[in-house]
Amino acid sequence: MLFECCWLNLLAAVAAAAFALVALIVIYAKITCGVCKSTKNMKGKTVIITGATSGIGKETARDLAKRGARLILACRTVSAAEEVKAEISNETGNKDIEVRHLDLGSFESVREFCKGILASEKQLDVLVHNAGCADTFNKKVSPDGIELTLATNHYGPFLMTHLLIDLLKKSRPSRIVVVASSLYVIKRLTLDEANLVDGLPALMYYRSKFANIAFTLELARKLEGTGVTVNCLHPGLVDTGIWRNVPFPMNLGLKLLIKGFFKTPKEGAQTTIYLATSEEVEGVSGKYFSDCKESSLNATVQDPDFGKKFWEISETMVKLTADDPKI
Fold first, then answer.
1. CB 175 within 8 Å of CB 127
2. Among this protein's residues, is 274 annotated catalytic?
3. DSSP string, 167-200
4. Active-site residue among 28, 155, 184, 205?
5. What is the residue-level pLDDT of the chain in tens, covering all 327 positions?
6. Cis status of the peptide bond prior to 325, with omega within 30 of 0
7. Nearest to 143 by CA among 179, 103, 97
8. Is the peptide bond before 249 cis (omega within 30 degrees of 0)?
9. Between the CA atoms of 256, 260, 261 and 266, what dihedral angle is there, to the nearest 10 degrees?
10. Per-residue CA distances from 173 to 21, 71, 142, 223 (Å)
11. Of 9, 71, 147, 282, which is most buried with the most CB atoms under 10 A?
């Protein structure tokens, strides 16, 4: 009986210690979570946000609407975007919000979207590449014959940036913000994997984040002196729909981690908002941020030789024409 009592007390002590440790981790994560402190008014500024129907994109749109920006929500599902528009307009009083269809996995859709923007907009002050897709096992190919994750997360934004670059230059000082991820370290992208249609989709997500960062760094080099800046960021691990494609039973443990440790979408959007608005990063370009401060990158993704060669491959993949704007 004495042994059983001691054993139960030990288990209770271990459980209490484990609970206390988890609580401390959660508290630490909340305390160290970066917050955008800029009060910059964005009235008179035009901002395009891709993937604004939920998660980080939606919270970014909500914040910028409160600052008075003219928002263009570029989304694949127009009906969902219209609901977000109504919600944010009612909450903030900002009626200068527009929804436009954009499927980043289709080059035809990207070109059609950009054609409409160039026809209707006189300026573009901030372009936020936020939209992204991820899957675990389901292999999908875009209408252009490109692995869908890389097509949506890199090649679509690459083409979109080219087609809108003259408007961004005209509106200088202007900014491009790329939502990447520190998960790029899990699987680097090699030049012979530029269209790995037979690759595991879960790994393609990590490769696409590597591509986002390499693209940002090379783009910054090419835009030097133009008045257009570009920076990328790690939003943190965030409780968003990006995790919904993790299958059962793998998603069971993940759900516990997400609810217990991941950032909320509002917390995850802070660094995006910071790079889109803050005076502190005026003129800053080619940097990687996390929790509203500059962070470090590994040497592989910073390799300028890789960045240049991957840029050339990307130009071929998106089928740039002689009539398209050049960066």
1. yes
2. no
3. HHHHT-SEEEEEE--GGGGTS---GGGTT-TTS-
4. 205
5. 544 555 544 544 444 443 343 444 444 444 457 899 999 999 999 999 999 999 999 999 999 999 999 999 999 999 999 999 999 999 999 999 999 999 999 999 999 999 999 999 999 999 999 999 877 667 899 999 999 999 999 999 999 999 999 999 999 999 999 999 999 999 999 999 999 888 777 799 999 999 999 999 999 999 999 999 999 999 987 545 554 555 444 444 444 454 555 688 899 999 999 999 999 999 999 999 999 999 999 999 999 999 999 999 999 999 999 999 999
6. no
7. 103
8. yes
9. 110
10. 46, 18, 34, 12
11. 71
Q: How far apart are CA 46 and CA 43, in angstroms?
A: 8
By the 10 Å C-beta count (0-12 exposed, 13-18 middle, 19+ buried), 321 is classed as exposed
Q: What is the pTM of this model?
A: 0.86
- Tokens describing residue 64: 């910028």
Q: What count of Cα atoms within 13 Å lies in the side-chain half-sphere of residue 195?
A: 12
Residues 6+ away with beta carbon under 8 Å from 19: none
- What distance in Å separates the CA atoms of residue 212 and residue 69, rounded to the nearest whole number? 26
Q: Which two tokens stand for residue 187?
A: 């699987």
Other CB atoms within 10 A of residue 326 CB: 10
* Residue type (1 letter), 222: K
Order across the sheet with 293-294: list the strands. Answer: 97-101, 70-75, 46-50, 126-129, 174-179, 228-234, 288-290, 293-294
